[in-house]
Specification:
This protein has eight helices and two strands, in the order ααααββαααα. It is mainly alpha-helical and 270 residues long.
Length: 270
């Protein structure tokens, strides 16, 4: 298995620190998602079946993100990508798939909460969950052979793989533009609309922007100019911050579960 290396201005101390953070995020992320899955699969919650399905789907996506942490941590400690080109393409595929699924699941959960507060709770979310995963798989598979719409490569700091934001190919730029609109702009737009009227939706919207905002900046910079304009240390922070999602989303799920319980009690008293 060949090692993929890149020229990077990051110091050995910075790589080691990234490795420590990624290791901690992986362990805590798996534990957090495991608790959510055991709780909701065991029906030990106060949410509607529709909400529970979205939460389980979100936890599965976040579990996938957390399981990827040891690979990125290992690469950080060795200051290179030790899993070869096949490992790079595989890592990038799962990173895209689980990342998009996490973003769109959180957006769907936010919209579900909004509709419930407006007195229009959803009866079922099975088709929505299926659509979320089909959408995530499509964008994850598209850059791979034989489709090759988009391109995966080692990230500039060399410890992970994702989209080649430096590519100027017209088909790649079309992939990037459509993917960003469908998988980020539309979900965030829907969340912002919900957040205007519901406080809990605002918290969830800000959380998503925290996790994925840096990758959003890099993607936009690549589309309108060059990703090389993004400082390398900000670029390197993107995967570290994004992998906080499994931990942060677990806190959000617990909080919304408590909110649901409070609303339910108030409704019964009325």
């Amino acid at each position: 298995m060949s090692t993929l290396t890149v020229d990077s201005p990051l110091s050995s101390g910075e790589y080691f620190t990234m490795g420590l953070f990624l290791t901690a995020e992986g362990i805590l992320g798996v534990l957090c998602c495991g608790v959510v899955l055991m709780s909701f699969l065991g029906n030990n919650n106060k949410m509607s079946p529709s909400r529970s399905s979205l939460v389980i789907s979100l936890a599965l996506a976040d579990m996938g993100i957390a399981i990827m942490c040891p690979f990125a941590a290992s690469a950080s400690f060795t200051e290179s990508w030790p899993f070869g080109e096949t490992g790079c393409q595989t890592y990038a595929f799962f990173g895209m798939t689980f990342g998009i699924a996490s973003v769109t699941n959180l957006a769907a959960l936010t919209v579900d909460i909004y509709h419930e507060t407006q007195g229009h709770p959803a009866k079922s979310s099975s088709l929505l969950v299926m659509a979320i995963w089909v959408n995530a798989l499509f964008w994850g598979v598209a850059p791979l052979n034989p489709i090759r719409w988009g391109r995966y490569t080692v990230e500039p700091f060399g410890t992970g793989c994702l989209l080649d934001f430096e590519s100027r190919d017209i088909m790649y730029l079309a992939y990037l533009l459509v993917m960003v609109v469908v998988c980020f702009v539309i979900p965030v737009g829907a969340m912002i609309y919900c957040a205007i009227n519901v406080k809990s939706c605002m918290v969830m919207t800000l959380s998503l922007l925290l996790y994925w905002g840096v990758y959003g900046i890099v993607a936009v910079a690549a589309g309108v100019g060059s990703a090389s304009n993004v400082p390398i240390r900000l670029y390197a922070l993107a995967p570290v911050i994004a992998k906080l999602a499994p931990i942060g989303n677990t806190i959000l799920v617990h909080w919304t579960n408590q909110q649901t319980s409070t609303i339910g009690k108030a409704t019964k008293e009325e």
